[in-house]
Amino acid sequence: MGHAGQPNIILVMADDVSPEMFGCYGSQDAKTPNLDRMASQGVMFKSAWGSALCCPARAQIMTGCYATQTGFWSNGFSIPQSDGSNNLFRHYSSFGKLMQDAGYTTAVAGKWHIGGAEPPHAKHVGFDEYCLWEGPKELSRLPDSPTHRGAWEDESTPSRYWHPCVVQNGRLVPTKKDDYGPDVFTDFLCDFMERSVKSGKPFLAYYPMVAPHGTRKGSPSTPKYGERGYLGGNKENNRSHFRALNDYIDVLVGRLEEKAKALGVMDNTVIIFCSDNGTASIAKSRGTERGCRIPLIVYGSGIKKRGASDEIADLSDILPSLVDFAGKKLPESMPIDGKSLKPFLTGESTKHREYIFACIGSTRLVRSRTHLLEVVNPILGIAEGRFYYCANKHDGRGYKRIDSDPEHRQVRRQFSQILDKYPGLTKQHPYFQTKKGKRFLELYTKPKAVQKHLHNHKDYQFYDEI
């Protein structure tokens, strides 16, 4: 059962967006007043990491573990566990289950998409309710195998935006042309919050958003501010669509905050905002820092006003933080890579952790407050990676390449010890002898894919990558 003092948690994870899209991270044209205010009144981490792709980032935030444990290295690439399965939550506890066990009512809305993992309503996954954008495979598992009659993004992908495909608590929701997915999910969570407050139990509202991921057919040109638009393939038009989508998620975060205020519980509620990985095409999937760098903002009850912080964090820290906020301890047998942010967020501590870590495909990355090691990837011929001194910089500007600089040799040795703690993959791994593994390597090692993975987008090559 929950007990007095357990704060409600609203955890929002935007889909595919880098920090520079937000005003608080330096954007001059962003309309993100709610998140900007939360960043200034709470804590905004200048350097926070997820993974560079959706599935491994979601596995990391849900379990508090890196891919070096879970085997969830990339989209469509998860190394089976000892029992031969990819059922993530049969081997690793989700924060949903841990919070449920701590007395919370739990709900998830938006985009699930953890390949190989079981659905959120499975008993050991731990969500009491869900409202998710789903596809034909998920619909086929419902009673009577219903068919989506709304809009489609392509031949196999139902719409996540206008006239979306939504499954709520085991049934297909009959949406209309004017129904907008992000609104549907936000309304669901607002209703869940209200019912939870009436029940007298603390709530965890987890919102892995469908937006601003891509500018797919059916996405609005200016969400809820103007007429609906469809993509015409024009890059500038796509940018304006994406900007509008991202600005609208700020509106939705504000709506959740206003609901908590209306319910009289904002003085006992913590809002956590992040994304899973960097913006598609210019960051996502790359083995560089930009691929895994995400916004991370924490605001609300008991959170010390620190504003922009030089402390570092990654998505593995979310699970232990939630359990800590719930006033519980992690099981001693639970193999967590993350560390609770609560002491730093509440002012009990002035520091959080000494390094953060990320992996994507067969690439590993390490960062301290001042140094960065990226694209460590023996399979792609860069076993030592690239080593930089960042000073107090966080966006790539001003980084100095220091691979052989004796002044930084001690830090490089420390980073090597961290890599030893989180061993990477080589071509000799048994998975790469399987049909799926061979296919992954075939695509992964194509020259064009290698060039993209090992380097930043041409518009963001701010430091030496040679």
TrEMBL record:
Pfam families annotated for this entry? Sulfatase
**UniProt entry tagged with the keyword Coiled coil:** no
PROSITE patterns the UniProt entry points to: SULFATASE_1, SULFATASE_2
What SUPFAM superfamilies does UniProt report for this protein, alphabetically?
A: Alkaline phosphatase-like
Q: GO molecular-function annotation terms?
A: arylsulfatase activity; metal ion binding; transferase activity
Keyword list (alphabetical) reads: Calcium, Hydrolase, Metal-binding, Transferase
Q: Which InterPro entries match?
A: Alkaline_phosphatase_core_sf, Sulfatase, Sulfatase_CS, Sulfatase_N
Q: In what residue span(s) does the Sulfatase N-terminal domain sit?
A: 7-327
Q: Which family does it belong to?
A: Belongs to the sulfatase family.
Protein's UniProt name: Sulfatase-like hydrolase/transferase
Originating species? Oceaniferula marina
